[in-house]
Specification:
By secondary structure, this protein is α+β, with helices and mostly antiparallel strands. It folds into two domains: about 80 residues, Ubiquitin-like (UB roll), CATH 3.10.20.30; about 60 residues, [2Fe-2S]-binding domain (DNA polymerase, domain 1), CATH 1.10.150. About 30% of the residues lie in helices and about 15% in strands. Strands 2-1-5-3-4 form a five-stranded mixed β-sheet, sandwiched between helices. The structure holds FE2/S2 (inorganic) cluster (2 copies). One FE2/S2 (inorganic) cluster binds next to loops.
């Protein structure tokens, strides 16, 4: 019987930068990005796909990166919260979060920003219901949902 490879070479592009690393086959994408690539903006709240703190955009699709293995992302183009601002300029959404006090402890914020970014790309003028639906996979333990909703709505309207 042939041995199962325990690690694999993985190449990903994260926020426009290409990385190639040898990765343990069982390593989750969120752990790979945080621990191997030192991009710690994406958070881990549950590791079970419930909280949304680890949300990233992978090949244009919003994903919870604790639900993917790093090896499954081989060849992918990944966006994390670190890639939103350009040359120190906040995106309109990030500025709106600041303007609307849409963060308290900030733990959920990277995931909220990625979910809302994915929404606004495909639907620049979402309805209230569409905003709520887009954020329903993201938990804010500080319960700051209203201000987060208002921040997204201000950008979308
Ligand atoms: S850490 Fe991925 S959904 Fe909570
Ligand atoms: S601001 Fe604290 S978890 Fe959302």
């Amino acid at each position: 019987m042939s041995a199962i490879a325990s690690s694999k070479a993985v190449t990903v592009t994260v926020n426009g930068v290409e990385y190639e690393r040898e990765v343990e086959a069982r390593k989750l994408l969120i752990h790979f990005v945080r621990d191997d690539l030192d991009l710690t903006g994406s958070h881990i709240g549950c590791d079970t796909g419930n909280c949304g703190a680890c949300s990233m955009i992978v090949d244009g699709q919003l994903v919870k990166s604790c639900m993917l293995l790093a090896v499954q992302a081989d060849g992918a183009s990944i966006e994390t919260v670190e890639g939103l601002a350009e040359d120190g300029e906040l995106t309109a959404l990030q500025q709106s979060f600041s303007d609307h006090h849409a963060l308290q402890c900030g733990y959920c914020t990277p995931g909220m920003l990625m979910s809302a970014t994915a929404l606004l790309r495909t639907n620049p003028n979402p309805t209230d219901e569409q905003i709520k639906k887009a954020l329903q996979g993201n938990i804010c333990r500080c319960t700051g949902y209203w201000n987060i909703f208002e921040a997204v709505k201000a950008v979308g309207s």
